[in-house]
Amino acid sequence: xxxxxxxxxxxxxxxxPFARPILxxxxxxxxxxxxxxxxxIKWGMPTYTYRGILCHMAAFKQHAALGFWRGALVVEAPAxxxxxxxxxxxxxTDLAQLPSRRVLAGYVRSAMRLNDTGAxxxxxxxxPKPAPRTPTDLGEALARNAKARAAWTGLSPSHRRExxxxxxEAKRPETRVHRVATTVAWVATGKSRNWKYETRxx
Length: 202
Description:
The chain has helices spanning 6-14, 19-32, 79-84, 101-117, 136-143, 146-154, 157-168, 173-188, and strands at 38-42, 45-49, 53-59, 64-68. The chain is of the alpha+beta class and 202 residues long.
């Protein structure tokens, strides 16, 4: 069996009680597939490599996750399951949600073969974000300023989203009122939310 990384042991011990048997099971299955598999920590998560990354696992407050680096080339999973959590198996809260030991080991060996051939991971197509909805208080403020209202309409969806999210993040009513007023003032002068950090022509 491949060598264990003590950092992964510590990670499992710190995980929520429900997640420990899930992580331990995944670890045992992956390491049993080949002594050439290496266990490490990448991006703060237990990660397994063999001529490149094979898979990673993680524990969160209410679920665990297992993902293969080459994703859809290794595991066929419904899109909604992939979207529900990191990895191909969705939000795992119980060992019964994972495939059998034999099937899971088969996935690991498939991932190893793909690494041997140098196959590239399948990238998920980025879903376009819907245009942000203008908050009522901001809409009312823009209605009172024709210049700002016209400029707001001309802003790209991403720039409008930055303003909308900034306003929504305000924790106090007075902070929100201030941000709405600032947004109207900046938009009226053609400024984006992060105009202070944008590169100015030399």
